């Protein structure tokens, strides 16, 4: 295995490869707080190509350490905004699913395998749920039901400790007629809503683990829905696709004022350092993302 490298050696390697480091001490401070490979992930996109089109170790001419740090700062703020948005969506979906399911099947209907398509999948979900109960046993509402309700937790309480992945698997295993009732509430089909929940769950996991969003090609993209997306929509497999889907689940005021407001602010703040194409955003992104 490779030996560990000092911060000085890491910076020297950057310089050897053509990165202009304006302030050595400041770069040292950055690397003491940010993993070296977190930085090189952003630098990868700026490597030169040789005559055969293969990547070289050297970076493009004129690239500075300050350029990269500003891109990283932008990406961090974009990721924060995305997590904030996905939290709103997760709560939206939990509310819709638990409200519908509770009224149709009763407060403990989620525990009964006959209310789902696949009994084995239901058993797996319940095992994860029991693990979540143990992890969250000190939460007041979990403790209350464990002590005073014989450990029976009603659906609208239980769903609060579901993670996004559990929401996806729960919806996927609901009976088709029940899936349709939820999908109707967001003006789409059950197949498309299942795709959206899956891709948003995967996106949430990427963002929660500090994965790079800038110039990162996603391995997945939401299925197209003609009720909610324009006819000319072409997936970019970048984070723009996720924002297009996110707006469907957020109220108009929250989306236009809070989310688009913050998005506009950070794009304006870092416009000298970023390329909108690197996140899949078209020139008219504001118009396309605004809820009319």
What does it look like?
- The chain is mainly alpha-helical and 292 residues long.
- The protein has helices at 7-16, 24-33, 36-43, 65-105, 119-135, 140-148, 155-158, 164-173, 176-184, 190-208, 239-246, 252-269, 285-289; strands spanning 47-49, 55-59.
- The protein is globular, with a radius of gyration of 23 Å.
- It starts with 6 loop residues before the first helix and ends with a helix.
Describe the structure in brief:
With 292 residues, the protein is mainly alpha-helical. The protein has helices spanning 7-16, 24-33, 36-43, 65-105, 119-135, 140-148, 155-158, 164-173, 176-184, 190-208, 239-246, 252-269, 285-289, and strands at 47-49, 55-59.
The count of helical stretches stands at: 13
Unreliable parts: none
SSE series = HHHEEHHHHHHHHHH
Biggest sheet features: 2 strands, antiparallel
Q: What percent strand?
A: under 5%
Number of β-strand runs:
2
What shape does the CA trace take? Answer: globular
Classify the helix fraction into a percent range. 55-70%
Give the mean pLDDT: 92
Structural class of the helices, strands and pairings? mainly alpha
Q: For the largest beta sheet, what order do the strands appear in spatially?
A: 1-2
How far the N terminus sits from the C terminus, by CA atoms, comes to 56 Å
Report the radius of gyration as a whole number of Å.
23 Å
């Amino acid at each position: 295995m490779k030996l560990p490298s000092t911060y000085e050696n890491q910076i020297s390697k950057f310089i050897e490869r053509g990165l202009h480091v304006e302030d050595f001490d400041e770069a040292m401070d950055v690397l003491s707080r940010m993993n070296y490979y977190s930085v090189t992930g952003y630098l990868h996109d700026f490597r030169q190509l040789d005559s055969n089109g293969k990547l070289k170790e050297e970076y493009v001419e004129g690239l500075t350490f300050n350029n990269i740090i500003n891109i990283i700062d932008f990406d961090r703020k974009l990721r924060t905004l995305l997590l904030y948005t996905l939290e709103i969506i997760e709560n939206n979906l939990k509310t819709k699913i638990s409200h519908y399911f509770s009224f149709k099947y009763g407060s403990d209907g989620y525990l009964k395998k006959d209310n789902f398509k696949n009994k084995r999948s239901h058993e797996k979900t319940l095992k994860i749920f029991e693990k979540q109960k143990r992890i969250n046993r000190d939460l007041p509402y979990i403790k209350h039901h464990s002590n005073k309700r014989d450990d029976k937790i009603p659906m609208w309480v239980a769903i609060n400790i579901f993670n996004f992945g559990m929401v996806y698997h729960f919806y996927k295993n609901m009976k088709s007629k029940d899936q349709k009732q939820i999908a109707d509430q967001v003006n789409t089909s059950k197949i498309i809503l299942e795709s959206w929940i899956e891709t948003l769950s995967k996106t949430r996991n990427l963002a929660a683990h500090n994965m790079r969003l800038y110039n990162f090609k996603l391995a997945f993209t939401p299925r197209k829905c003609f009720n909610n997306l324009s006819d000319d929509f072409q997936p970019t497999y970048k984070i723009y696709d996720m924002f297009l889907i996110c707006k469907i689940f957020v109220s108009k005021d929250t989306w236009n004022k809070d989310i688009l407001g913050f998005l506009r602010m950070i794009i304006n703040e870092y416009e000298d350092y970023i390329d909108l194409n690197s996140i899949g955003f078209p020139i008219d992104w504001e118009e396309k993302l605004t809820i009319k």
